[in-house]
Amino acid sequence: MYIIYFAIILLLPIYAQMKVKSTYKKYSKVRSTSGMTGAEVARRILDENGLYDVKVVESSGFLSDHYNPMTKIVALSSHNFHEATVAGAAIAAHEVGHAIQHKEAYSFLTLRHKLVPVANISSNASWIFIMIGIFATSTNMLLLGIILLAMGVVFQIVTLPVEFNASSRAMNQMVSLGVIRNEEERHAKKVLSAAALTYVAAAAVAVLELLRLVLIYTGMSRDE
User: Fold this and answer.
1) Domain count, the chain
2) Which structural domain, as residue segments, surrounds residue 167?
3) According to the model, what pLDDT value does residue 7 have?
């Protein structure tokens, strides 16, 4: 049982990362028929949605693309920023999807932002109490650790609709503006689906780990 559990939590994230890299590598070599670079795609969608105050900048690092709501900046990794590829267009549109969510105060995005400081503190502190609880066989300490860890799990789960919604917005924007056409739609969906898999894997692993600890707590409580 435990062998299967550890196989899942170890292999699922690895598979997700491999899927992202292989899919991105494939479609980052496919030039988009629109000829628009990732930076141009982002700027076009931003302007179409009245987000003139959001900047598009180049960022260093592989697949370091992100949207920062504090600075209102869409940062795109170098290849996506400069090259006109299907993968670059999809990722740029996805990050702009977050900017549109921010403008519209999308409920799950707002909730995620509120959970960030709580999740950061609770996730780091939880394992201190969990380890103390397990080694000292203290159900109270273990329960406290589980409660703190659960806050981080909630953050992981809330992240899923945020990412899926951003991808949905990205596809709608790219199609309506003619950024991608025909077969490119299917390719762009593959890129976005592969990226989303990393969040699904992270959430699944977090939930499984939480359930394992709950079972340990139940067993300890029964033995007391």
Assistant:
1) 1
2) 2-223
3) 75
